[in-house]
Specification:
Layout (H helix, E strand, L loop, with lengths): L2 H27 L5 E2 L5 H4 L1 H8 L23 H11 L3 H26 L4 H12 L16 H18 L8 H6 L2 H13 L4 H5 L3 H12 L5 H17 L2 H13 L10 H5 L4 H5 L20 H6 L1 H20 L5 H16 L9 H7 L6 H4 L7 H18 L8 H21 L2 H4 L9 E2 L1
Helix pairs in contact: 1-5, 1-6, 3-4, 4-5, 5-6, 5-7, 6-21, 6-22, 7-9, 7-11, 9-12, 11-12, 11-18, 17-18, 17-21, 17-22, 18-21
């Protein structure tokens, strides 16, 4: 192995290691020995029983028998995760911290890998991954409904595999081996979707534009033909649908025979109230992040981001750096990143303000607060798409630092490393819950 190849592998290992440390150390240091009411208590109290019941369309042990809502999602991956740690005798709180840390790490690692596929420098790819992994978007979910973060964790991998499916060295022959090779990356995408997609159909739907925008981008650039683009899209769609039948069929059974869930949950007006453009832009806007009652805030970590001037300023600084990268660099794929940011922002704002929505969202709203608009009511679950675009923009800007051939190579390298270090420090500082060891919300934890 050449010296250059060794240096490249070492740099990649350092970046991956840094992402892992920024996920696992803060998670394990947050409220050790205490357990939050995250997603479903049966995951920790009786994982074997929950997994055993999850495949049934009828639940006899609750409410004198009923058709459960989305219980099948615990078949994979959360149920087996907690069942394994239960069998091994690992404390519940450790299993939970490793769970949320793994979600965070995989989210960052996916964007890191995709950024390198898209031609960003190692420093730029690391910054893109940090922007995505350490976004305040996670705070309303991380210790209350962490399963809803699975599509966020999978977006980078889905986009990266789509990039490889369109621009990779896929054989173009007509023999059986070549034909099968064209199904490799779509099959891997389907496996990711099978892992992250069952938890919530809306959350999955909100990240679908990512790979679609990439396919449109490369076809528009004429890097692949529109016919090839349609072929890749068809292969991905067919396989993703095939691996999703298991939970789609359960949703169908629940919609026919179960409780009318939409009629008994939060209203569209309540959910959309805080999805303003300014809040969405900094990765926020989810209604639970702002809710308070006489006892306290629903999300304790929200205080820093709502009243802390330093945290607010640093958060906006990170976003502005990403937007500057989209506007000022000559990175070949900045149009794709800009489309992700724009579409993510549009979808995340959704029908806000509900009494005067945009013309596009007004079509979904129709004459009342029901139908498709209500089904897609948690529109801020499209924020990961925005964060991906902004993160790639920040990475492009860092990659452009020291790219000029006019200055000596050592000076360019020092400049890029300095820019990477400063921006990484800003990103970490913009998420106080990370270094305050507060990823687990004290409002909902227990011994």
């Amino acid at each position: 192995m050449s010296l250059r190849a060794r240096a490249s592998r070492h740099a990649t290992a350092v970046a991956v290691g840094a992402l892992a440390l920024l996920a696992y150390l803060p998670a394990l240091a947050s409220s050790p020995g205490r357990m939050p009411a995250d997603t479903k208590l049966y995951l920790y109290l009786d994982p074997a029983g929950l997994v055993g019941r999850a495949a049934s369309t009828f639940e006899p042990d609750q409410f004198a028998g009923w058709v459960p809502f989305q219980q099948i999602t615990y078949l994979w991956p959360s149920g087996p995760w907690y069942l394994l740690f239960d069998v091994l005798g690992v404390p519940d709180w450790v299993a939970h911290r490793l769970w949320i840390a793994t979600i965070m790490f995989l989210a960052g690692a996916g964007v890191l890998w995709t950024s390198r596929l898209l031609g960003l420098s190692r420093s730029g790819a690391f910054i893109a991954a940090l922007v995505y992994q350490l976004a305040p978007f996670i705070l309303a979910y991380i210790s209350r409904t962490s399963l809803l973060l699975l599509p966020w964790a999978g977006l980078g991998w889905v986009v990266g595999l789509t990039v490889r499916a369109t621009l990779g060295q896929t054989p173009v022959g007509t023999d059986l081996r070549s034909r099968l090779a064209r199904w490799r990356d779509p099959a891997l995408i389907a496996l990711v979707v099978a892992t992250v997609g069952s938890v919530n159909a809306t959350t999955l739907a909100m990240i679908v534009p990512g790979p679609v925008l990439w396919i449109i981008h490369v076809a528009w650039q004429r890097r692949i033909s529109w016919r090839s683009a349609l072929g890749v899209t068809a292969r991905i769609g067919v396989l993703c649908l095939a691996v999703s039948v298991w939970w789609i069929s359960m949703l169908y059974a629940q919609s026919r025979s179960g409780a009318a869930v939409l009629a008994y949950t939060e209203t569209l007006a309540d959910v959309s109230r805080n999805a303003t453009g300014s809040e969405v832009l900094r990765g926020l806007g989810y209604w639970l992040f702002y809710q308070r009652d006489p006892v306290g805030a629903t999300t304790t970590a929200s205080f820093d981001h709502l009243v802390g001037l330093r945290t607010i300023a640093l958060g906006y600084l990170v976003i502005l750096v990403g937007l500057a990268g989209l506007a000022l660099t000559s990175w070949p794929h900045r149009r794709f990143a800009a489309m992700c940011a724009a579409v993510g922002a549009l979808l995340a704002v959704g029908v806000h303000p509900i009494d005067d929505p945009s013309p596009l969202m007004g079509i979904l709203l129709g004459d009342g607060e029901d139908g498709l608009a209500l089904a897609l009511r948690s529109s801020t679950r499209a924020v990961p798409l925005l964060l991906l675009g902004v993160g790639l923009g920040a990475g492009a800007l860092v990659s452009a630092v020291g790219a000029s051939e006019r200055s000596p190579a050592p000076r360019r390298q020092v400049a890029r490393l300095a820019a990477t270090g400063v921006l990484a420090a800003v990103i970490v500082a913009s998420l106080p819950a990370l270094w305050n060891r507060a990823l687990v919300d004290p409002a909902i934890d227990r011994d």
